[in-house]
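Is this the right way to post C-alpha cells for a design question? Let me know if I should format differently. Anyway, here goes:
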C-alpha cells in the first residue's frame, strides 16, 4: 500500500505548479509500479484535503502561463483517474474546487465529519477544470451536481454521505486510518484480479452494456490464466490464506 500526500498544509494543500508537477510524476510512476496494491490519497494536516488551485500564485499569471500550468493539472488528473491501482481519497476538512475534483478522480472517498466539499469555481468566473462537470453528475446525479456547480455552494460531510459522494463517514481525524484499513483489505486480495476489476468497471461504465460485458469477459480471461488464480484455488482447498504474487 502507498500513501500519496498533498503536502502544503500552510496553504491548505492548494495546488501550485510544483505540486502539479509532483502529482503528475507520482501517479505516472504508480502506473508502472508493480508491487503496490492500493493507494491512499490524502492531504497533510487536518484543515484541508486540498483547497484547489493556488490563486495567489495564479494572480500574476498571463493567460499563456495559466494555460501552460493547467495542462500539467489536466495530465495529472488523468493519471489519477486512470491509475491501475485502487485509489482511496481520505478527506479531512476542505476539498474545494480542484481539491474536490481530485477526490472525485479517486475510486471512492472516505471522509471525516469535518469534511466540506464544493466546486465553487463559477463564483470566481472560473470553470471546474479537471473533471468536476463530468464526474460529479455521474456520482450524485445531474440535478444536484448542477446546483452545486452553478451556485458554488459547499456541501458538508453529512449531506455528502446522503448524496452518495462518500463511502464512509468517520469521526474527525480518522479518515486516513479508515482509508488505510480499507486499502489493507484490498491489498490482501489478488492484485491482478483487483486491477482488472477496476479496469472493467471504469471502461464498462463509459460504454453500452453489451460492449461492457465483452470488456468484463476480457478482464476475466486475463485474470484466469494467472498464477494468482491457481494459488487462490489451491489455498481454498488447502484451507489457508492465499499468497498472491501479482502474476
Amino acid at each position: 500500500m502507498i500513501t500519496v500526500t498533498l503536502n502544503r498544509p500552510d496553504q491548505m494543500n492548494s495546488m501550485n505548479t510544483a505540486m502539479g508537477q509532483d502529482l503528475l510524476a507520482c501517479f505516472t510512476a504508480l502506473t508502472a509500479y508493480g508491487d503496490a496494491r492500493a493507494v491512499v490519497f490524502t492531504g497533510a494536516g487536518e484543515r484541508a484535503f486540498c483547497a484547489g488551485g493556488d490563486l495567489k500564485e495564479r494572480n500574476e499569471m498571463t493567460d499563456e502561463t495559466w494555460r501552460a500550468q493547467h495542462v500539467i493539472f489536466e495530465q495529472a488528473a488523468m493519471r489519477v483517474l486512470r491509475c491501475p491501482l485502487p485509489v482511496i481519497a481520505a478527506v479531512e476538512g476542505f476539498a474545494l474546487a480542484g481539491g474536490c475534483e481530485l477526490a472525485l478522480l479517486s475510486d471512492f472517498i472516505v471522509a471525516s465529519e469535518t469534511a466540506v466539499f464544493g466546486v465553487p469555481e463559477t463564483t470566481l468566473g472560473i470553470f471546474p477544470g479537471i473533471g468536476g462537470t463530468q464526474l460529479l453528475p455521474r456520482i450524485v446525479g445531474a440535478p444536484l451536481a448542477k446546483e452545486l456547480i452553478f451556485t458554488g455552494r459547499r456541501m458538508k460531510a453529512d449531506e455528502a454521505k446522503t448524496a452518495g459522494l462518500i463511502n464512509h463517514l468517520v469521526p474527525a481525524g480518522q479518515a486516513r486510518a479508515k482509508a488505510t484499513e480499507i486499502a489493507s483489505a484490498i491489498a490482501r486480495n489478488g492484485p491482478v484480479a483487483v486491477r482488472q476489476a477496476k479496469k472493467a468497471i471504469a471502461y464498462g461504465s463509459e460504454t453500452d452494456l453489451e460492449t461492457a460485458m465483452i470488456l468484463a469477459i476480457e478482464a476475466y480471461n486475463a485474470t484466469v490464466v494467472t498464477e494468482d488464480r491457481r494459488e487462490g484455488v489451491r489455498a481454498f482447498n488447502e484451507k489457508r490464506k492465499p499468497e498472491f504474487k501479482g502474476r
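Format looks fine. Someone answered above. Worth noting: The mean pLDDT is 95. The two ends are 17 Å apart (CA to CA).
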